[in-house]
Write a structure and sequence with these properties.
Layout (H helix, E strand, L loop, with lengths): L1 H28 L3 H42 L11 H41 L5 H22 L30
Helix pairs in contact: 1-2, 2-3, 3-4
């Protein structure tokens, strides 16, 4: 993509140089002032056209690509990257930070689910009568943590596969790296 943009910039520069040379030679050869004014107008329009081409390829296209990535992020798809511009770098950083936050929540909910399971076993082994209410609350906590993990697993990540307790990677179709969770 960068090579295509460079070629377009070179073509725009050549167009400006050709228009300038044509205008200068016509001005020197022209006998009347009207022809010189017309050629000056052509030169100004050439500069305007070159500026418009430059703006389109240098600013408009990268902004449009960044907007597409931002819209994907709004839909929960974090597997895209924006073009390397100041805005694109910021969008990419937001995507990376969001993925890291989700991965942190994923890891902590796994640890919390393990703690809940351990507490449930400990309570059930000691006193069945006193622990019934606590076990109900642990069941609710278990469901809430599982719900959080369901929400996180619905997002599309770049190069991150969430691994569940059985060691199975959720398919995100985006990259090859696996983020395994420490037990």
């Amino acid at each position: 993509m960068k090579g295509a943009n460079d070629r377009k910039h070179v073509l725009a520069g050549l167009f400006i140089a050709a228009a300038s040379g044509l205008a200068l030679s016509c001005v020197l050869a022209a006998a009347s002032g009207e022809l010189a004014l017309l050629l000056l107008l052509v030169l100004v329009l050439g500069f305007f056209l070159a500026g418009a081409v430059h703006f389109y390829y240098r600013w408009h296209l990268p902004l449009a690509e960044s907007l597409g990535v931002i819209m994907d992020m709004a839909d929960g798809k974090f597997d895209g990257t924006a073009p390397p511009t100041l805005l694109g770098d910021a969008v990419n950083q937001v995507s990376v930070n969001t993925q890291e936050a989700f991965l942190l929540v994923w890891n902590h909910t796994k640890d919390a689910l393990g703690s809940v399971a351990g507490a449930r076993e400990s309570i059930a082994a000691h006193d069945e009568m006193a622990g019934a209410e606590i076990l109900k609350n642990l069941d609710k906590l278990d469901e809430a943590l599982a719900g959080i993990r369901d929400v996180i697993s619905a997002f599309g990540f770049y190069g991150v596969h969430l691994v569940d307790e059985g060691g199975v990677a959720d398919s995100c179709g985006c990259g090859t790296a696996h983020a395994s969770r420490p037990d």
